[in-house]
Amino acid sequence: MTSRIARWTLAALVAAAILPAAAAAHATIVASTPGDTAVVKAAPPQVTLKWSESVDLGAHAVRLLDGSGKELPTPAPRHGPGGPATAVLTLPRGLGNGTYVVAWRVVSADSHPVSGAVSFSIGAPSAVLFSAGGTSSAAVRGIDAVGRGAAFVGLAITIGGSLVLLVLWPEGPASRRARRLLWGGIGALLAGSVAVLLLQGPYASGGALSGAFSPSLISFSLSTRFGHALVIRILLALVFAGLVARALQRGGAREPAIAVPAAACGLGLIATWTLTDHSRTGVQTWLGVPVASAHLLAMALWFGGLVLLLGCVLGRPHATLAPVVPRFSRLALACFAVLGASGLYLSWRQVGALGALPSTDFGKLLLLKAGIVLAIVGLAALSRRALRRGGDDLARLLRRSVAGEAFLGVAVLGVTATLVNTAPARVSYVDPVDTTVAGPAGARLQVKLSPAKAGRNVLDVYLLQRDGSLMVVPELTARLLPPDAGTGPLNAGLAAAEPGHYVADDLSVPFAGRWTLRLQIRTSEIDEDDVDVPVRIR
């Protein structure tokens, strides 16, 4: 029965890891010049796009379409003076009046493609019929997801499994089953990384599976940060495989000549993940990358070691539990301490506000993951108590508790796979503006702006007297002053909803930033007061 549980658990772990997940668009447009839907008098020489994070540009990452959807010839896009988070598309001369669409499909910081479009009009708007296009085939997306999952599981077995087999388990190198499992992990790491490298081109460009061996697409992949990381990952995995072979011949990896380079390879493999995901974007990147690396390393040591322990030690009725199980128990305790501390910091870094936890998909998944991890810690505590107590039924109790940890590990892995493909709460969560400031003649102004994000918003302004009743004034107007001095103010277009209550139900804010809402209140024929309210647009 225990062997069957071990086999099904291992199968479930792999299945959870390779289950394809839909990727959310993490890089979002925060500004464009000309602005989206802007009408200009003359054709601009170029279009500039700015995203919320760094993006990689292919030769056709940004395209110019006319109103009929026909693509117009342009030079390849390039990064602008704003760095890798920007793109500049030079426009052809002689563009006539009408509406044009700039469609884009770029590679986000986490290696996933994101796409969209903005439009502008010359002279006056015209009818538009276009397709932004660019979704990769289901085969490309599916195989890419399998490759990423296989590489992730392979990383855990490679690092955690090798530590258990070659360091913590004296009899480990003699176990044919353990050797096969470890080589399988290294093979999954290599095969998955090669598959992702070949598919990154068609995945990023929206191509078909046949483009996996296209020289131009492979060249594009190799020119990106993610492509560099994959090549380094493959090379490090090959070096690590050579060190494992040498260690197996010598019956362990305790010699410094093997242990030191193996540890360096392991840390390098971890870095190929954390230097190409959202750890290097957002706030405190200088701390986010090393903390995320420690988090991933602790996970790999615990998860990979648990897989080998369950499949090769606890899954065998007559396996010797000492000293490998007590040693792994101490290792797991240290891993969970690192996971807990680093997880708290990374959660704050990706969430930003407590209100985002119950209000965003990312926050809800994070709470679910925390609950499952607490359950795993509880089972691990039961295992440690059983080890201290000993007894004839020790092996049976350990098999049950470790199998339970593994099953919960499946859930953690599944939630984590969804988390990394979900927009961080710090990006998706918007805290609506709801503030009260002092107004003229002892009155108060209550300002509400929802959802307080780039795009369409609704603005409510209430004039309150000292007793809380609404106050009527001859006139109230509002303008939004942008954070960039190069952009003009926006007229809010307030209209009276009721005496003392003014509404702008179609206030379009073009980009995120710290804006200022300037309220101009005329209280008499000659008296007028200006009140500035800081407004943060996400």
Summary tags:
single chain; 538 residues; alpha+beta; Immunoglobulin-like; 3 domains; 5-stranded mixed beta sheet
Please sum up the structure shown.
The chain has 538 residues and is of the alpha+beta class. It has helices spanning 2-18, 138-168, 176-205, 215-223, 225-250, 256-274, 285-312, 324-351, 356-359, 361-389, 394-419, 425-428, and strands spanning 29-33, 38-40, 46-51, 62-65, 71-72, 78-80, 83-90, 98-107, 113-122, 433-438, 444-450, 455-464, 475-481, 490-491, 495-498, 501-509, 513-522, 528-537.
Can you describe what's shown?
By secondary structure, the protein is of the alpha+beta class. It folds into 3 domains: 1-23 and 284-429, no CATH class; 27-107 and 111-276, Sandwich (Immunoglobulin-like), CATH 2.60.40; 433-537, Macroglobulin (MG2) domain (Immunoglobulin-like), CATH 2.60.40.1930. It is 47% helix and 22% strand. The protein is built from 12 helices and 18 strands. The chain has helices at residues 2-18, 138-168, 176-205, 215-223, 225-250, 256-274, 285-312, 324-351, 356-359, 361-389, 394-419, 425-428, and strands spanning 29-33, 38-40, 46-51, 62-65, 71-72, 78-80, 83-90, 98-107, 113-122, 433-438, 444-450, 455-464, 475-481, 490-491, 495-498, 501-509, 513-522, 528-537. The strands form 4 sheets. Strands 2-9-8-4-5 form a 5-stranded mixed β-sheet. Strands 10-11-12-16-15 form a 5-stranded antiparallel β-sheet, with no helix packed on it. Strands 1-3-7-6 form a 4-stranded antiparallel β-sheet, with no helix packed on it. A hairpin with a 2-residue loop joins strand 15 and strand 16. Helix 3 (176-205) crosses helix 4 and helix 6 (256-274) crosses helix 7 (285-312). The radius of gyration is 29 Å and the shape is flat. The model is unreliable at 1-6 and 16-25 (pLDDT under 50).
